[in-house]
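Tutorial handout. Part one gives the primary structure; part two gives the three-dimensional structure as tokens.
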Amino acid sequence: MGSRDVPSIQAAVPSVDRVLRLTAVRSLIETHGRPVATEAVRAVLDDVRRRLSAEGEAARPLSTQKAIAARVLATIEERSAPSLRPVFNLTGTVLHTNLGRAVLPPEAIKAMVAVAGGPSNLEFDLDAGRRGERDDHVEDFVLRLTGAEAACVVNNNAAAVLLTLNTLALRKEVAVSRGELIEIGGSFRMPDIMARAGSRLREVGTTNRTHAKDYAAAVGSRTALFMKVHTSNYIVEGFSTAVPVGELAALARDHGVALVVDLGSGTLIDLDRYGLPHEPTVAETLAQGADLVTFSCDKLLGGPQAGIIAGRADLVARIRRNPMKRAMRLDKMTIAALAQVLRLHTDPDRLAERLPTLRHLSRPAEEIEAQARRLMPILAGCLAETATVDVSPCQSQIGSGSLPVERLPSAALVIRPVTGKRGSGAALKRIVRALRGLPVPVIGRMHDGACILDLRCLEDEAAFADQLVHLRPA
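Part two.
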């Protein structure tokens, strides 16, 4: 094709106005608005012209009005699709920080929807007919479940720690064991949080051994708090010593300072009854003498992202008066969801069947294996001649820093590229990418040349199986 033929081909491309008048595109304008439709039309036409210049006659089918309208629709749908989407968490990590941690129960979702569409009594006391406090919607549940005198809620546990320290230890010293100066996800370190709170860290003891006498020796005129951090995201074994909460609480009282315990992924229930390893509960910690306990709501508690400060009424009252609390408060939908999750905890006999996090954690390995064997032939059929699929036992983990060394027996679908072909690593990456490209993306993990799909958290088996027909490893 000569260079003179290109302009004639380009002339066949319709104008922006002409495309906007097409029936199919007019319906897009009604749905998405003229600016969005116009931007998409221009982008498609620019691409068509580039393709015609580069490919000539071979690209002419792209310039028809029907083809352009179809591409405009696809472009708008792609640009309008939310970036935050549901996924299947088959990583084997139940509380996966990158995948949103705890899955909310239906009761919590229903409560969120109920208050999202209109006004609510978020900060209005219906009985008294005057301004109320948003923490009131959850505080009573926390007191019933923990035995605390008072409680307040902020947007996560890091905020709870920050607010507590800023209120009770501003420009004062906080004694913390060197073995408890943890780093949590995203490189957030406890010493950094303390510094931002305006507190001065006073390290006591050593990395592996801290004694009561170390805390006592650190007490001075500027000491405001003893702080104990539950090392929920790692464990020190061997020649190690830590001061129990009860002993540290007595020491704090003797020296006239408060004891704050950061439980991190703190739980409200005894996990032993569900066949899970024991984790110190908030109620236990307060009963042992802690003045305040801070903990997360979106980990073992199984709720939305939030942090709770519970304990002595006088200390909680001071924290509530801190102007920083306003910057850390919860919105109405999170409060609605959290209240329902806490309400479920008041009925421990049915909690495992009603709270998704606990249901996933306590799911029997035999049940997971049976599910894997049902799904194996379906997945294998979709990956025929591309990969083999086997069922294999595996180990799940709780995640989000909870019980870091504990593993839960589970079962997985193991996908391996067909042997004998070059570039098996690239083939595996294509399979993993295709799984992420499904209507509901499937997120597994890669290990030892295979894609591992741990089914511990897979509840909607039918939805997972039905979408596998779209699996196309290119």
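Part three, for discussion. Residues 5-80 form one domain. The chain has three domains: 5-80, 88-96+360-470, 106-354.
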